[in-house]
Structure prediction request, 442 residues.
Amino acid sequence: SRQEVSYFGAGPAPLPTPVVEAAGQAFVNFNDSGLGLGEISHRSPTANKILDDAKANLSALLDIPDNYEILFMQAGGSGEFSAVVQNLVPVWIERRRRRAEADVVKANPDAEKAQVDELVFQRLQKEVDEELKLDYLVTGSWSLKASQEAARLVGSKYVNVALDARKANGGKFGTIPAEDTWSLTPTKAEGGKGSAFVYFCDNETVDGVEFQSFPKVLEAQGQDAEDERLVVADMSSNFISRKVDVSKYAVIFGGAQKNIGVTGITIAIVRKDLLPPQTATPPAALLHRLNIGGLPGPVVLDYATIAKNNSLYNTLPIFNLWVAGKVMADLMGVFGAQKVSGQEQIADQKSNLIYGALDKYPQVYRVVPDKSVRSRMNICFRVCGGDDAKEKEFIAGAEKRLLQGLKGHRSVGGMRASNYNAVPLENVQKLVQYLEDFASTQ
Ligand code: PMP
Prediction:
């Protein structure tokens, strides 16, 4: 039964049992309407209410300021790897286009529109060629993938890997080197021209590396609003697990399937001034002519289109949205005014228990990432120095106790205990007991 199994999978991941039970009912006969949530129109009043409630609960949990738009999308975290490029590079181009247009008109007051457009185009083409940069902080497998997707779309010449954390750690992820070693594109205030955005993954699911706080260097904003650093964060695997100052970000995104719900819903929180009418999207014809790979991109990943249509541009999976909304509503119900800080305390408590047990037996267990960047969500460790037979023995013993999903990602091996919000304290205690018992037999 559900009560007997302790599941530590990295995603999809456990959901609170009351939510799963209510979801079963909602899938069959929602609120006694005679229809299930997989069957109703995404434009029905019922669906609209589910959407409004989910937004309101997320907004309350994370204290999302009014100048942010909450978007429910599809295509997962991976879809957002493309979406951030597709949406933020045009913001950079449009800002540059406006500046170029103002300069050209000033220098050529009598020029005709076609002539102005041509001069603007020529300047833009040069600026794209020489100055377009997308900064990536690569601290694990997922930010690496995101940087690779950016390079695939727009071309690697535009992608500045400002940090590759493997370089300082023998070719492996597991640390976040000091900020003063990062090679971010300098902002105007720093004597440069700035990048289109700076991207990082807040919690690296495969490597167990989590930023402990918002990087200080990213707070340094340019003097000119157009030269600020637009910060993008992937929070797929630590969403609503701690307090976040949303106002520091341009875009926060994450798939729902770890801390929030089932697969099929992706959340993007986007600063409104990056969307029309404040920042109009450059005309498709201009993007075509500039010939930057991947632009303009698919309309279903276009933030402006999704925002304008209240996340209902095309069919949104309402059942999946309901599950996410229910998880968030229940968290609000439990933590009330504490909001996500309540969840944060529990996440800390549970992860401290697991790390505590691992640290207690250094001859048996070794936590993979550096102590300073340990993830509260994905706890990666090796058993007996990574000895294959011993690690198999560890897994087999865990399975006997119905402690499941502890195998590390296939790309790195070892063990990984994922400690998402819905993993109960009792299950963590069972794991800790097993860690103790296994260690005592070694
Ligand atoms: N980012 C992170 C941090 C992830 O953990 C994952 C999935 N494990 C992804 C992105 C990709 O998400 P999806 O499978 O939803 O595309």
Remarks:
- Residues 76-107 form the longest helix (32 residues).
- Residues 120 and 210 are 43 Å apart (CA to CA).
- The two ends are 31 Å apart (CA to CA).
- The mean pLDDT is 96.
